[in-house]
Design goal:
It is built from three helices and six strands; from the N terminus they run βββααβββα. The protein is an alpha+beta fold.
Length: about 80
C-alpha cells in the first residue's frame, strides 16, 4: 500500500477577510479561517503576512502568533 503524501510547493499565501488564499505549484485554494485557526482569524495583517514554510514543505509557521499548520491538512 502506498501511504505517500503529495508534496506541494507554496508559492504565496494571502488573506481576504476571513479566508486564507494559498497558491501552490498547481492550485489556488481558499480556506475559511473559522475552520482552521482562531489565531490567524484574529491576527493583524502584519502577523498574517509574516509566515515561513518549513524546509520540508510540510508546514507553515507564523512566528508572531506562534501558530503552526500542516500544509497537508489545509489542502485535503
Amino acid at each position: 500500500m502506498n501511504n505517500s503524501v503529495k508534496e506541494h510547493i507554496v508559492l504565496d499565501i494571502t488573506f481576504n477577510n476571513h479566508f486564507m488564499v494559498i497558491k501552490t505549484d498547481n492550485d489556488i485554494v481558499n480556506i475559511d479561517l473559522n475552520q482552521v485557526s482562531k489565531k490567524l482569524l484574529n491576527a493583524t495583517d502584519i502577523e498574517r503576512a509574516l509566515y515561513k514554510v518549513s524546509p520540508s514543505g510540510y508546514g507553515i509557521h507564523w512566528p508572531l502568533i506562534d501558530e503552526d499548520i500542516s500544509l497537508h491538512a489545509l489542502l485535503k
